[in-house]
Automatic annotation (TrEMBL):
One of its GO terms (molecular function) is oxidoreductase activity. It comes from Neorhizobium galegae (Rhizobium galegae). PROSITE patterns: ADH_SHORT. Keywords: Oxidoreductase. This is SDR family oxidoreductase. InterPro entries: NAD(P)-bd_dom_sf, Sc_DH/Rdtase_CS, SDR_fam.
Length: 269
């Protein structure tokens, strides 16, 4: 692929609609070339043609269903072999259709395949490729429910907690490599995801629902500022800092050679 942008190429998964399509729009406006990844090839082609025409960038389409291993491997290959790629938006995912006790286990398996297995494979692929090139950035789209699992459907919340933990762990390994990583934690966002799982944004408090363009604009500012975790709706960053400080206070006690005295266990007895 011949690169036409000084910024390089952004590969965006889940790019046919919602957050992914909005990232594609905003990044094209910034001057990035694009590789757009999703299942719906027709929508991708239409989006790619429009963005190329409007912004003078190059936009390629890579049709892939990331719940299928062969398609995940095709995207993995593109990340590793296309040296023009400097930014990876790891966005593809699906949401819950209701509480776990009423859920179809097969659908939950599909959610894990997409939200966890594919997201992990591609984040690691991008990280390894970018480290070898000495530059690049990875944006993992998690969710605010990663910090509040008890308020949402469990498998979905757990999948997004995985994405957050993966981002934090990769950040430690990526230190001083020239590669940056960010986790974005949206709350309710006005996209098609609710319609796809049989819900409606109309049933939510409008004060809790962010427009997708506002979300992506804030997330990109967070990326520009070098934030590891971006919560677009959080005004007081000291709240999250206090949370991470308190969590850090647990570290000395996470692994010791004896049970805590509060359990009344006599070690070695």
């Amino acid at each position: 692929m011949t690169n036409t942008s000084k910024l390089g190429t952004a590969l965006v998964t889940g790019a046919s609609s919602g957050i992914g399509a909005t990232y594609a729009e905003k990044l094209a406006k910034r001057g990035y070339d694009l590789v757009l990844v999703a299942r719906d090839a027709d929508r991708l082609k239409a989006l790619a043609a429009r963005l190329a025409s409007e912004h003078g960038i190059k936009a390629d389409v890579l049709r892939a269903d990331l719940s299928q291993r062969a398609d995940v491997l095709a995207v993995d290959k593109r990340l590793r072999e296309d040296g023009s790629i400097t930014l990876f938006i790891n966005n593809a995912g699906i949401g819950p259709k209701g509480p776990l006790l009423k859920a179809d286990p097969d659908y939950l398996d599909q959610m894990v395949d997409l939200n966890v297995t594919a997201a992990n494979r591609l984040a690691v692929a991008a990280a390894q490729a970018f480290v070898a090139r000495g530059k690049g950035a990875i944006v993992n789209i998690a969710s605010a429910v990663a910090l509040a699992a008890e308020f949402f459907s469990g498998t979905y919340a757990a999948s997004k907690a995985f994405v957050l933990a993966l981002t934090e762990a990769l950040a430690a390994e990526l230190k001083d490599t020239g590669v940056w990583i960010q986790a974005v934690l949206p709350g309710y966002t006005r996209t098609e995801i609710f319609d796809r799982v049989g819900g409606s944004m109309d049933n939510l408090d409008p004060n809790s629902v962010m427009e997708v363009g506002d979300l992506v604009d804030a997330a990109l500012v967070g990326l520009d500022r070098g934030e590891l975790v971006t919560m677009p709706s959080l005004a007081d960053t000291q709240l999250y800092e206090a949370y991470t400080t308190a969590r850090g206070g647990l570290r000395p006690y996470l692994s010791l050679n004896k049970p805590a005295t509060r359990y009344g266990v006599v070690a070695g007895a």
